[in-house]
């Protein structure tokens, strides 16, 4: 059983990585091309309504997706009942947001936003059609099929976005690209998923998942609102151009930080749910997950801080230079993301969804207080407040989640401290390049990256860190599986 679980996990990670990075990579590449054709203001306008779409998507799923994955005795009736519930909630959400669109435009004092909202919010019912198909594939750990759907939809929607951006040169290119991505993905999941709903709906089935799902819904709503509170605040108190700079910086830093962590999380949740009763086994598994994920993500984010100037100039151009400092600050938040996410996943696996909800409320109260304080100053202080928030709530997450499996704050920091120290030493080495006579951005970027990577791995090898001993065999195995 252990070997089977290991094989499924490795195979799942491989295809989950292909899914996440190929799809997101295509989206980023297309976004970078479009960034040369549109203005920061165009990206900022779409960013203004991101929070409303995000909340709608959370309501539509309502936590039933994770409830279905976690259950061991799911029936076809369960799947069909949740499918129809998703559609019903999608129609309700779209109708409400359609009516609220003029108020959203008034809130931002931007009249054209009304029509943009009404079209953009079509992603809600469109996405609802593919939710159960995606959930079934996740439960089966069939990330290969999910990867095909994500890759194809991202590629074709990206091409559509580039063509429209070149021809119409305004925010509508981004709107249509977004809708087409969700639409194509739902269509492909229906074609390759081989699941069709029954013409039956069971209230009993929904009730059996209600308690667990509603806690996750509450958690998701609060999390979604606060994750998108920065676009909301920046769009309201600053302007669309500033929001465009911030949004592009945030999108770029999330590519490695969020993606790598979520790749592992998506696989670990269904796999570790099968061994949730064996606490010692699960504790050791999570210890390796935290150390390995942090070993990959943290140095990568520290490297991005060191190469931010060259990276932004090469990818986006001088017109986006104002986003460089935002990007560097947000990379600190991204560096800590694995610890946040993996610790929260522990609570969901052991079924502590109510505790997750309570902690989420506490965390977001802290965030709102920090924003209220920072909003009195300029944008830099507002963005720095995210770093302060991330550090404060990290201790909160590590304490309560670690308590469930006897893997607390001190043990976690002891395990990750070598990675932190050696990453900062490597950053110090590449920081010395500021004293070297000017080189072309691309040449300097390559030299910095090679110096950082070589020094980081050599230092880990010299000091024989435990994270290195965990991560290298796993990475080698993943490469072998891909081949």
> Gap between N and C termini, in Å?
25 Å
Strand content: under 5%
What are the secondary-structure elements, in order, as H or E? HHHHHHHHHHHHHHHHHHHHH
What's the average pLDDT? 84
Structural class by SSE content: mainly alpha
> Unreliable runs, pLDDT <50, ≥5 residues?
none
What radius of gyration results from the CA coordinates?
22 Å
What percentage of residues falls in helices of 4 or more residues?
Answer: over 70%
Shape: globular
- How many domains make up the coordinates? 2
How is the biggest beta sheet arranged?
Answer: none
Number of strands: 0
Tags for this entry?
21 helices, mainly alpha, 2 domains, 483 residues
How is this structure best described in words?
This protein has 483 residues and is mainly alpha-helical. The protein has two domains: 1-237, no CATH class; 239-483, no CATH class. Helix content is 85%, strand content 0%. It contains 21 helices and no strands. Helix 13 (240-272) runs parallel beside helix 16 and helix 16 (323-349) runs parallel beside helix 18 (379-405). The radius of gyration is 22 Å and the shape is globular. The protein starts with a helix and ends with a helix.
